[in-house]
Specification:
Layout lengths: L1 H64 L3 H27 L5 H30 L4 H9 L1 H80 L13 H142 L4 H119 L14 H4 L2 H12 L1 H5 L1
Helix pairs in contact: 1-2, 1-5, 2-3, 3-5, 4-5, 5-6, 6-7, 6-9
Keywords: Membrane, Methylation, Transducer, Transmembrane, Transmembrane helix
Subcellular location: Membrane
Protein name: Methyl-accepting chemotaxis protein
Length: 541
């Protein structure tokens, strides 16, 4: 807890130092910027303005003293260049860096004075250009109002220079004061930080070393086997938590050692029962192995039988497929026969129709022959030959009618028989269709039987593999039983060694540790727990 407070206080002081340093550095930077970008440049530019004005004034006065016109014009050109070109530049540069109201007021005064001075200066230059003006008038203009305005401008410039110098001095003084203030505050904060750090270091050291000494004493006693140590815990910081953990550890060790001491005999009893259980388990494992071998042999025989049934069903399925194909071909042929009989019946009906036509023609021919005979009788001797021909034609017509009648009877009988045959062929076709459908059903059933036999064969094969695997597991269990017997003997020896080791610890007389949960469960559960701990696979079996 103290270490945490120490860290918080240190970081708070560092934060204060940092924030104060930032504020002071910002203030110093502001004043330095004012000094470097405002006050000093203003003084420099004002000096340039004064120098340009002096140069222009000097050139104007020299033009009066020049004896030749060429010299006068040269001085006037120099004065014009100075006042018209150089002066506006430096004045504009100064106007851009004006920063205060007072400086603006003085600049406005200077600007008005400069404008008036330029008016007088232009009048002076005009008099010199005319050449006829008297020297006295020129001198009066140069030394009268012009000189007074020039002196006023110089005074105003001096005031502006003094204003900027005072501003620079104030900025430098403010920066120096900020520096001195920062040094003082930093010194105070550093001294306070050192004092707080040393004080907290002493307190934290004492709060750590005393509990650590107690913890070392308790740990030494535990190392000697003495679990009777007792101590008082104060505070809730990390050392107090350490002592509390040591106290809890001491109590847990007392409880654990007591439980181990009370459970040593139960372990020995459990080891004996494990040995008895191993003997019984070994006998049952041998019986199980014999039963598995018999089961494996029976499964092999069953697998062979099922495989034979599967092969037979496969062959029957192939035969049923061929029978289905033959029945389908027979049905196709019977269908063709039915179609042929129907075509014959249709042709017989057409022949009967033709015979009817012939009978009708013979009847009409007979009537015509009768009419011809009547006409021949009317003709007398002239129609006797025609009557003979008509008689022959009638005889032929009667014979044709008799023949057509007989053909019609034969055709009618043939059509009846063809119709009967076509009906029988249709019944045969339907019977073949029924046979084909039944053969297909038989083929489907045989195919399902073949598939079921194949699945049975595969399942029996898997069962055989499972039985073989179970046989292998049984053999492994037998090996684990032997290992468990050896582990039980080793466990009994280790329980004796455990009793010897536990006797080293010194417990309080009033301490009555609770009985372990696994001891209250009885020897049988103890044996089961130990068996599961040493051999999980054997315990599962």
């Amino acid at each position: 807890m103290f270490s945490f407070l120490n860290i918080v206080l240190d970081h708070t002081l560092l934060l204060c130092l940092g924030l104060f340093g930032i504020v002071q550095i910002r203030s110093i930077n502001y004043h330095a910027n004012e000094l470097g970008t405002n006050w000093l440049p203003s003084v420099r530019v004002l000096g340039d303005v004064r120098a340009v004005l002096n140069n222009g004034r000097r050139a104007a006065l020299r033009s009066i003293l020049e004896a030749t016109p060429e010299g006068r014009q040269r001085q006037l050109a120099l004065q014009k260049s100075t006042m018209d070109e150089q002066l506006p530049k430096v004045v504009s540069s100064y106007e851009q860096i004006i920063s205060s109201t007072e400086e603006r007021r003085l600049y406005d005064i200077f600007r008005a004075q400069l404008d008036n001075y330029r008016i007088l200066e232009r009048r002076f230059v005009a008099l010199l250009d005319e050449g006829g003006a008297s020297t006295a008038a020129v001198n009066a203009l140069a030394t009268g109002d012009s000189a007074k305005l020039f002196a006023d401008m110089t005074e105003t410039l001096a005031q502006l220079v003094k204003l900027n110098e005072d501003g620079g001095t104030a900025a430098a003084a403010a920066a120096s004061a900020g520096y001195d203030r920062a040094i003082l505050v930093f010194s105070i904060l550093i001294a306070f930080s050192l004092f707080c750090g040393l004080t907290l270091a002493v307190v934290v050291t004492r709060s750590i070393t005393q509990p650590l000494a107690t913890g070392v004493s308790v740990a030494s006693a535990v190392a000697r086997g003495d679990l009777t140590s007792s101590f008082h815990i104060q505070g809730r910081d990390e050392p107090a938590a350490l002592l509390q953990a040591l106290q809890h550890m001491n109590g847990q060790l007392v409880s654990m050692v007591g439980q181990v001491r009370d459970s040593s005999e139960s372990i020995a009893t459990g080891a004996a029962e494990i040995a008895m259980g191993n003997a019984d388990l070994s006998q049952r494992t041998e019986q199980q192995a014999g039963s598995l071998e018999e089961t494996a042999a029976s499964m092999e025989e069953l697998s062979s039988t099922v495989k034979t049934n599967s092969d037979t069903a496969r062959e029957a399925n192939q035969l049923a497929a061929r029978a289905t194909q033959a029945a389908e071909q027979g049905g196709t042929i019977v269908g063709s026969v039915v179609e042929t009989m129907q075509a014959i019946a249709a042709s017989s009906n057409k022949i009967a129709d033709i015979t009817g036509v012939i009978d009708s023609i013979a009847f009409q021919t007979n009537i015509l022959a009768l009419n011809a005979a009547v006409e021949a009788a009317r003709a007398g001797e002239l129609g006797r030959g025609f009557a003979v021909v008509a008689s022959e034609v009638r005889t032929l017509a009667q014979r044709s009618a008799q023949a057509a009648k007989e053909i019609k009877e034969l055709i009618t009988d043939s059509v009846a028989k063809v119709g009967n045959g076509s009906q029988r062929a249709g019944e045969a076709g339907r019977s073949m269709d029924d046979i084909v459908a039944q053969v297909r059903q038989v083929g489907t059933l045989i195919s399902e039987i073949a598939n079921a036999s194949a699945e049975q064969s595969s399942g029996i094969g898997q069962i055989g593999e499972a039985v073989n695997h179970l046989d292998q597991v049984t053999q492994q269990n037998a090996a684990l039983v032997e290992q468990s017997a050896a582990a039980a003997a080793s466990l009994r020896s280790q329980s004796e060694q455990l009793n010897t080791l536990v006797a080293v610890f010194k417990l309080q007389a009033q301490a009555t540790p609770a009985a372990p949960e696994w001891r209250s469960q009885g020897p049988a559960r103890v044996a089961s727990a130990l068996l599961h701990a040493y051999h999980p696979a054997l315990a599962a079996a």
